[in-house]
Design a protein that fits this description.
Elements: E1 8-12, H1 17-28, E2 32-37, H2 40-50, E3 54-59, H3 65-78, E4 84-87, H4 102-129, E5 134-139, H5 143-146, H6 152-172, E6 177-184, H7 190-198, H8 202-212, H9 221-232, E7 243-246
Parallel strand pairs: 1-2, 1-4, 2-3, 4-5, 5-6, 6-7
Bound molecules: nicotinamide-adenine-dinucleotide (NAD).
Length: 253
C-alpha cells in the first residue's frame, strides 16, 4: 500500500533541495502534486523529471498574498482541497541584526514566515470548508533552537514558524488537521552551498558545520524528505504540534 495513495500534496519550494526531494518521494508514494516555486526553470525541470504525478506547477512568490490566493484557487479548481502541505520555500541573507537593513529583514521574513502563514491559511480553510482532515508540515531549522551567528532574520523567522505550527495544531486539532514543524540540520542543498560561499573561508565554514553534527556529516535532502513523508502520512496520526528533528544530532550535542 502506497503511503500517500490518492493524496493531494502541495509543496512550496518544490523546485530544489528538500522540497524537490520530497516531491520525488511523495510521488513515488502515490501523491498527486502541486509544486510551487519562484524559479520557473526549476519547476519545469521537476515536472520533466517526476512526470505525471506533478499535476500543477505554480510559479510565484510565497510571500505575496495575491499570488498565493490565486495559486490556491487554481489547485482547488483543478485538483481539490490539498490533504498535505509541505512549506519548504526558504532563503537567507546572512546578516547580523546589527547590519540588517529593513528591506532584507522584510524579504527574509516574507518568504520564511509569511509565506508559511499564507499557504497554511489557504489550505486549512480549504480543508475545513469541506470537513476533511489534513497534514501541514512547516520546514523550520535547527538554528531556531540552537541560534547561530550572522543570520538573524532567517533564524527569527524559523523560530516563529515553530510557534506557528504549535498554534495551528491547537486551533485545528478538532478539525482533524495536524500541523508539525520539521527541523533539519545542515543539509547539502543549493541553499547551504550558497551560505558557505558567503563565508570569508567557505571550506572552513563547511568543516565547522559538519563538526556540529553528532553524526559527523551533512544531511542529504532525502533524509529530511523521508521525515516529511512520515508526518504527511497516516502513520503520524497522533503527531501534532511537534518538532521532528532530522538534524544528525546537532541539537543533541
Ligand atoms: N539546507 C539546509 O541546510 C537547511 C537547514 C535548515 C532548514 N532548511 C530549510 O529547508 C527549506 C528548503 O531549503 P533547501 O536547503 O532545500 O533550499 P533550496 O534553495 O535548495 O530550495 C529552496 C527553494 O525555495 C524556493 N524559494 C525561495 N524563496 C521563495 C519564494 N519567496 N517563493 C517561492 N519559492 C521560493 C527557491 O527557488 C528554491 O527552489 C527552507 O525552508 C530552508 O530554510 C534548510
Amino acid at each position: 500500500m502506497l503511503r500517500l495513495a490518492d493524496k493531494i500534496a502541495v509543496i512550496t519550494g518544490g523546485g530544489s533541495g528538500i522540497g524537490l526531494s520530497a516531491a520525488r518521494i511523495f510521488a513515488a508514494e502515490g501523491a498527486r502534486l502541486a509544486l510551487v516555486d519562484r524559479d520557473a526553470a526549476a519547476l519545469a525541470a521537476a515536472k520533466a523529471e517526476i512526470g505525471a504525478a506533478v499535476h500543477l506547477t505554480l510559479c510565484g512568490d510565497v510571500g505575496d498574498e495575491a499570488v498565493v490566493k490565486s495559486h490556491a484557487a487554481e489547485i482547488a479548481t483543478t485538483m481539490g482541497p490539498p490533504d498535505v502541505l509541505l512549506c519548504a520555500a526558504g532563503w537567507s541573507t546572512g546578516h547580523r541584526a546589527a547590519d540588517c537593513d529593513l528591506a532584507s529583514w522584510n524579504a527574509v521574513i516574507a518568504t520564511n514566515l509569511t509565506g508559511t502563514f499564507l499557504w497554511a491559511r489557504e489550505v486549512v480553510n480549504a480543508l475545513t470548508a469541506v470537513q476533511r482532515p489534513g497534514s501541514l508540515i512547516f520546514v523550520a531549522s535547527q538554528l531556531a533552537f540552537a541560534g547561530s551567528r550572522g543570520n538573524a532574520a532567517y533564524i527569527a523567522a524559523k523560530g516563529a514558524v515553530v510557534s506557528l505550527a504549535k498554534c495551528m495544531a491547537n486551533d485545528h486539532a478538532m478539525d482533524g488537521i495536524r500541523v508539525n514543524a520539521l527541523v533539519p540540520g545542515a543539509i547539502d542543498t543549493p541553499m547551504l552551498r550558497r551560505s558557505f560561499a558567503r563565508a570569508p573561508a567557505p571550506e572552513a565554514a563547511r568543516a565547522r558545520s559538519i563538526s556540529r553534527h553528532t553524526m559527523g556529516r551533512l544531511g542529504q535532502p532525502d533524509e529530511v524528505a523521508r521525515a516529511a513523508l512520515f508526518l504527511a502520512s497516516d502513520e503520524a496520526s497522533f503527531t501534532t504540534g511537534s518538532c521532528l528533528m532530522a538534524d544528525g544530532g546537532w541539537l543533541a550535542g
